[in-house]
Amino acid sequence: MNSLRSIRALVFDLDGTLLDSQKKLSERTQNALLRCGQLGLDLFIATARPPRSVKALLPSIIMKNVSAVYYNGAYCRDLSGNTSSFTISPAIAAKIITQVCRNKEQDKLSIESEDVLYALSNAVYEQNRKHMFVPPTIVSDKSLASIPANKLLLFRCSAETKHYIMNFRAQLSVVETDAGELLHIMAKHISKASAISTLCQKRAIPMRQVAAFGDDWNDLDLFKACGYSVAMGNAAPGLEKDATMRTGTNDTDGVAQVLEKWFLD
């Protein structure tokens, strides 16, 4: 492993990592982030969330100092405000939507498209408010299939639906989080790691000089791609095996603990 002095960029997952169990950013962690930025380290957020909820959760002073990866890599914004968007094949999205409706699971499906949430009914919002900040725009199944989808999201879908989706693994990136409760579906080769790599290339930062912090399986690709990786104390069981080290939980300022030890003390 390279010297810690070689680290030039820091990447943070949001839920379960930067944010505590109450979805708050502690003052200690906020100060550690800002001080690292003042030292010249590039800061990145990499999350499954859409832009609107990240903006609602993080203070504006943090948002001004980070580049952001949303939808597990399907939508990105750099420090200059430039965005990149990657969508699922319309034909494949239409097949999945048809299958979901055939299985009468339309109340478990939503689509994210460049910070707009779409669904077939309000039931998906009523049943999953902890994952959604705003009610969706309601459209018909035909209209839904025509929307460029950065991400399809299924909440507690049946094994039959999940099996059907897995038939498209050669053309899709499929990630389970929240102990299998959520199924995130993006275009093939879309991941937090691919998005961070692209953003870092623009800054001439090699991935070996990047440190990633995370707690769930959609952070695994980052752990493998970055030179350093830190699993939270509350991480999904087994994730720490692919991490450089483990820190405290998100409720004990685990991120700040590492930043202070590495760069600030």
Taking the sheet with the most strands, its summary is: 8 strands, mixed
**Low-pLDDT regions:** none
State the distance separating the first and last CA atoms.
Answer: 21 Å
In DSSP terms (H or I, runs of 4 or more residues), the helix count works out at: 10
Specify the CATH class of the largest domain.
Alpha Beta
Fraction of helical residues:
25-40%
- The CATH architecture term of the largest domain is 3-Layer(aba) Sandwich
Find the structural class using helix and strand composition: alpha/beta
Radius of gyration: 18 Å
Give the SSE string: EHEHHEEEHEEHEHEHEEHEHEEH
Find the CATH superfamily of the largest domain. HAD superfamily/HAD-like
Pfam families: Hydrolase_3
GO cellular component, one term: cytosol
InterPro entries: Cof (IPR000150), HAD-like_sf (IPR036412), HAD-SF_hydro_IIB (IPR006379), HAD_sf (IPR023214)
Protein name: Hydrolase
Can you put this structure into words, describing what you see?
This is Hydrolase. With 265 residues, the chain is an alpha/beta fold. Helices cover 31% and strands 22% of the residues. It has two domains: 4-85 and 190-264, 3-Layer(aba) Sandwich (Rossmann fold); 90-187, Hypothetical Protein, Haloacid Dehalogenase-like Hydrolase, Chain: A, domain 2. It contains ten helices and 14 strands. The strands form two sheets. The protein has an eight-stranded mixed beta sheet, with helices on both faces. Strands 8-7-6-9-11-10 form a six-stranded mixed beta sheet, covered by helices on one side. α9 links the parallel β12 (210-214) and β13. The longest helix is centred in the middle third of the chain and has 13 residues, at 90-102. The model has no long low-confidence stretch (mean pLDDT 93).
